[in-house]
Write the structure tokens for this entry.
Amino acid sequence: MHSTACSASALNSTNSMSTSSPNTTDGLKMVHSNEDALNKIPLKSASGLDDEEKNGGEFTSDTAAAEEARREQMRANILKWMKKLTIVLICFIGVALITYVIISLCFSDWSKTSNAQSNNTSINNDTSFTLPSTYNSSLSPDDDSSSSSSSSKNGALASNSTSEGNGSLLATVATTTAATIATAGFGDSAAQPTNTYSATTTGAAPTTTTVDSVPGTPQTTVITAASGATTAKSSPAQPTRKALVLKDSPPLINDKFESKLGVYEQAAVCSDREVCSEIGSHMLDQKGSAVDAAIATLLCNGILTMHSMGIGGGMLMNIFLKDTQHAYSIDAREVAPFAAFQEMFDGKLELSLNGGLSIAVPGELMGYHRAHERFGKLPWKTLVEPSVKLCHEGFYLTHHQWNALNYRWHHMKNNTVLTDVFVNATTGQLFPVGTKIKPQKVLCSTYELLAENGPLDFYNGTLAQMVVEDLKDLGSTVTAYDLESYSADMVSSITMQLGDDILYAVPPISSGTVVANVLSILEGFNLTKADFVGAENQAKTLHRFAEALKYGFAKRWELGDLRFNDVRELVSRLTNPEYGMSIREKINDDKVHKAVFDYGAQFMGEDDAGTSHTVVLAPNGDAVSVTSSVNEYFGASQAGRRTGIVFNSAMNDFSVEGTSNSFGLPAAPSNFIDARKRPMSSMSPMILADRKGNVRLAFGAAGGSKIISSVVEVAARYLWFGQDIKSAIDAPRIHHQLVPNVLQYEFGRFSEEILTLLKQKGHELKPFKDIGSVVCAIAQNDTAIYANADYRKRGGVAGF
């Protein structure tokens, strides 16, 4: 029976093999063509037999019992290995858990101990002075989470650190207390002079602890913000926010004025008015961005310094982001209306400076909109509200504003909006310096509309209708369509290597490329402090400055609106250090060139005038440098009776065809009038940062063509002559713009010996007694942030 079964089985197997597809069998036996050892292993056939078994090997069939025994043995082996694996896994997990617990306990105790020691060490170490930590700002204009999220900033002194956390504490504190922080004790260092500034905090009356100073370290008062709080040595300070106190200070009546060097730990703002700078600083303290602070500051200055700038004008903004080490430029300069044409001022140039025809389409608010939309963090209304309050409360008439009024009054005296503000109705005379001025209520109402409806309301909303009616009354050709179709451009800033740093400039129509070119020319002279020691060296250095400025201005008149002129090649050349080197080789230290053509001049241009510059450096390292203008003082000498807005006279910045100067240079075609065209400008908002993205200098100026020379001289003194930023701004200045071919100098600030040496080199000299140009700048080093507003306009700085 058994042999019969086996025979049957063998027969069945043989039949199965014979009926199998040869293709299937061959497919299962295929191997790779290489000689890998694995290819030499016999493969199973389709029937389950190996090659040897198919070639006559004897097949032995197991009994059912033997087959079952083998399966049982296999299951036993599998269970045995599973038990071993389970034991190993349990042991491994146990060891890991024990290790985790031990490490957690050890590091938890160490962290608590080290933090306490760190706090005590920082407080007791009087020489501890480090850079503030930075944080990243969101680019989203609608992201207000930063105002409620928990964050912290480290000040330069550990004892001044505050943490943002418990919002409920802020909600319950109602008392506002002003605390004065004195920073002094810099020894003999000229780079860090004594400075006193005020900080206002929200909280109960603070207790103070004075940290003793040592040579080279500023003496600082430590403030405990909340009543009943322990000192900083035993616990961190309670969360605080500065309360904004809006109060314009009356100007000093005497002629002597000393600008303040602001020394700060985390952030700074510089502008034409200190109260406006305080508003900008407050926005930064409220976790606003650098752009938020700049806009809030500008809106304030648009009221308090309406003779220099305002929402009826235009601006150029340079924005640097530390995180990306990239800068953006916003061109919101005024444009010629659609009705403008090239010959509109032929034979009547006066109309380009005063009255309705001198008004170009304002771009200021559109520029604010573009900047805030991309880089703002705080709500728009928050930026406007402080200025609305100041408008209703009024401000003090300053020396600079009174001089501007006196200079332009014969053009302004028939505009009742302006006379009602600045003229004493009883005497018929201008109010004296120091008088509290209150703008017309319509201007305050305009700002209220802007706060509620946003900046675009100026271009296509309720405010736009009022603006168009005002412009029509003043004889302007600017229409509703001009406003509605206006756009501000945002592009990447131009860059140039300056030493080991990167200089960022706004493209034309800005003159930032000219500033860059002049600095690249001067850089190769390897100037140091020694170049200003002695009359001979000073005269040689001033001569080099003048010659470099001549070459720069020769090319300025070839620049123009990029939409109408392809000046890309020229811009690339002016910002190339090698081009600067080639120009430097043409400068003769002993004499000037005889003709203006020797400097490459082909055209002449127009001088621009009154402007205002604002600079912001935020705690996260971002910076904004922005120049704003209405062109001449009080612009077109006209303000709208419905809006109270002072409108610009930007049409005067265009060149007029058919005119020439005494040197035979024709007007620059690149700057001729055309519909929707922007006129060339001297405005040069600049930012200088190192390779790590740390802003070294954010600077710019107001004052027409003297902007270029002033910005160059201040930067050179700070970067190469080792002067602190206040000394660099305070220093006497020269100016040369090639046409006219005259070296101008500040009256009474240069010795006769130096002036004589300059004459011997061939310069024709002419003193100027006006304020020339006004610089605003913020500088930063490893020690602190320094801000200074030019004493020439009596501006102000703020920060924390």
About this structure: Confidence is low (pLDDT under 50) at residues 1-62, 108-240. The radius of gyration is 38 Å. DSSP finds 22 helices and 25 strands in the chain. The CA atoms of residues 512 and 684 lie 5 Å apart.
